[in-house]
Amino acid sequence: MAVIAYDEFTSSSSSLSSVSTFTIILIHGLLGCGNDFADFAHSLASNLSASHASADWRMVTMDLRNHGRSTDIEGLLPPHDVENTARDIANCCD
């Protein structure tokens, strides 16, 4: 199964292998890509780390099908519809 391109930020108290208390998912608009959130994601991550130092959280920015780095991923076959987009997002969050 192909997985769309994404970046993940985690709290300093969390590890990538552990289950986070909460997850923030940032999804771009029609003509965007996950990189649109780069500055915002870094700022939010800094603020969350400062204000919720003991919380285990993760934040995911993603490139939906045919956007950003996901355009080069093989296996993301048509149809490029809402159902497959929702499935891609769910696969990213597992």
UniProtKB/TrEMBL annotation:
Keywords: Hydrolase. The lineage of its organism: Eukaryota, Viridiplantae, Streptophyta, Embryophyta, Tracheophyta. It comes from the Eukaryota. It holds the Pfam family Abhydrolase_1. Residues 23-90 form the AB hydrolase-1 domain. This is AB hydrolase-1 domain-containing protein. InterPro entries: AB_hydrolase_1, AB_hydrolase_fold, Serine_prot/Carboxylest_S33. It comes from Artemisia annua (Sweet wormwood). GO terms for molecular function: hydrolase activity. Belongs to the peptidase S33 family.
